[in-house]
Amino acid sequence: MPEAAERLAAVVTHLWGSAPPLRLRTWDGSEAGPADAPVLVIRSRRALHRLLWRPGELGLARAWVAGEIDIEGDLYQALDRLAGLVWGREEPPGPTGRGRSALRALGTLRDPATRRLLGDALALAGAALPPPPPPEEVPRRNGIRHTPARDRAAISHHYDVGNDFYALLLGPSMVYSCAYWQDGPDTGLDQAQHAKLDLVCRKLALRPGQRLLDVGCGWGSMVLHAAEHYGVQAVGVTLSEEQATYARKRVAAAGHTDLVEIRVQDYREIPDGPYDAISSIGMAEHVGSEQYLAYADRLHALLKPGGRLLNHQISRRPLRREEDYRLDDFIDRYVFPDGELAPVGSTVSLLEKAGFEVRDVEALREHYALTLRAWGAHLEAHWDEAVRLVGAGRARVWRLYMAASAVSFERNGIGVNQVLAVRPEPGGASGMPLSRGPWAAQ
């Protein structure tokens, strides 16, 4: 009788119509698949349980986080090869469909070959029910998304995992958004992050004495850069208590408590406009489609006439039918609960509906792939310390999330854009230059 790896390879080949893109090694030591490919190691039948009961992305994610599967070889290459098989389709192929278990599918299949192969896979998995999800998984939530309380809980899940872990991951810049690799991929991460912060400041045309609001300020890097280099009075808001504590210590150490204030505050609760400029860098992905116009309206109200907004946001590709959009299972359950991506065109339209005039859109997709690979290299170099700080499961979440995201940016699955908008003066004056020169010049 064929060994486990050969039997699983036969199932994949039949259901997907092509041989496995990775070499398979199963718990019995058997191997099948291309000899020159990275190896997908399936360490136990428990992993197969998860994959059969939740086919596709969520089953794979659960097995990965639990340490029941692993990759030997280049993780980025492995995910690139898997992309077309698992993430490259709007619906998983084969008879199980999205979220439909192999056991349920088996009872309705008429094709004898498919019934036989799925039955063989179920026999390999054994009779036991699938194990519970890893503890790092956020349970499915009920109720209204993006209420202030639910947003606080979602932000806490992702960001309140320890500042020491983020310092290991991000390096001295402590910037958790796409860097700007203006001098090419050999630029150091800290230099590229400095260049991104300065690009934002130039686009906002910051000047001494102005008031800047940074929505989703993270560990304070943007407000500190703006205060130190442009002399502004800066307010940074975050929903993360740990971020705020860290940012306040940085501000005090830099001697800028007279210029910078850090608040734990929802953007919907900011009372003290108007501001001369607003930056929102990597925060709007948490807002949600149903709240996005309210978000844009609030920022518009907080900005003085003639003031500028820089909205830096990850985007997704538009669908033929936008009503088919669904949250990414792995990201929603393990990384950013309730996070939503929108096409850049939708973002521009909603900003303009709120009263902004959009003046510039810059795509930085390749820049984010480079950034994620740099973060991934930090994680790999300090793996043992990362596991000590947050546990093996959560460290594996970050390793998969960053590598898979890098591949998605590289494959043009997702993008990231800086949208520069202005609240026009009464009568329509924008105060904008006639060209990009003021911020494009180095």
TrEMBL record:
Gene3D superfamilies: Vaccinia Virus protein VP39 (3.40.50.150). It comes from Peterkaempfera bronchialis. InterPro entries: CFA/CMAS, CMAS, SAM-dependent_MTases_sf. It comes from the Bacteria. GO terms for biological process: lipid biosynthetic process; methylation. PANTHER family: CYCLOPROPANE-FATTY-ACYL-PHOSPHOLIPID SYNTHASE. It holds the Pfam family CMAS. One of its GO terms (molecular function) is methyltransferase activity. Belongs to the CFA/CMAS family. SUPFAM superfamilies: S-adenosyl-L-methionine-dependent methyltransferases. The keyword Amino-acid biosynthesis does not apply. This is Class I SAM-dependent methyltransferase. Keywords: Lipid metabolism, Methyltransferase, S-adenosyl-L-methionine, Transferase. The keyword Transferase applies.
